[in-house]
Request: fold
Amino acid sequence: MDIRCKICGFVKDIAPTHKDFKSANKNLSFLYICEHCSLKIQLELQKANDIYKFSSYPHNPPRHNND
Ligand SMILES: [Zn+2]
Reply:
């Protein structure tokens, strides 16, 4: 059975033993994301997480009232 990656359109022929076969067979709108895209998403999420952590630090910059 052919399933298509929702992101890049890559078509993969999956065997009945494939972990996604049952879900894809039951549900025609099954969201399949190929290995390449899922890796890319993971990296993007990781990057976004790192940027968020960096930009949100410090939450409360110390104030100096020396005047
Ligand atoms: Zn893909």
